[in-house]
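Let's study a protein:

___
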Amino acid sequence: MPIPSLSEKDLEAYRSDLSNPEKSTGELFIKLNGLYQRFAGNEQLLADFEYVSALNSLENTYSSKKEHFNKEIIELKRQFKQLDNRIVAAEQKLRHGIPEDLMVMDKIIAEQESIVEDQEKLNKAESTIVEQVRKIDIEHGKDLQKLEQQQNNREIPFKSKFSTFNDQLNNAEKQIKFKVTAFSLIAIIGIPLVVDLFFTMVGVPTFAKNTNNIIFNHYLFIISLILVELFMADKIRNKISRMLSISYLKDSLNTLDNLFTENERQIAKVESEHHIPLAEFVKRNGEV
């Protein structure tokens, strides 16, 4: 089953997810990656729409030109037919010999000269049409080749572009996770350390004075560390993760939004140039 294309509703839903503190950053990264994958469908649809629309326009233009010259060829054949009839009529007049009447003879000669002249014109017109049709065929072949090359040139960066997006998201997520681990460790250790220093400064007695045992001398730190790890560590990690992730995710969403807008603009351009709505193209060619 193909991945559905990206829509404006998908982008709005993700914006709402970014402002929802219940959504984990891991889930947000996964969803954003999914949105980029869905947008790849939009880009593929645009590429197919551009290609097929341009191809149809080329074929329609080619067919129109061929139809025009086909009509000229039909008219040329009709004129050749008339010329053949004139040749037959002239031959029939000479079949009984050369007429003695000079006026009649002059008319026959003039008709033969006219036949030769018209035959040369028709032959020249035929050669011109054949040459024009040949040029049309060559130009059409070149246009098709150029269109295919444009499509191939688009496919190569198209595939690598979304591979790059995926790599960027994965690398950013890894870097943020590393920073979250470091900052969380500082916070989780720092809170008990502050508590220990505070109570030491105010003179809270320890369980065992004058001992070299680190645990007994810093029991408040150990207890605070355990409590922080049990009840606050996950919240601290999630808070730091959101602080570091949301800004990047918003920027990535804005990038995707701009790409989506440009994709919509290009679709509208193709619709205007080739006079075919995208919905009709999808209906004709099936779901993409």
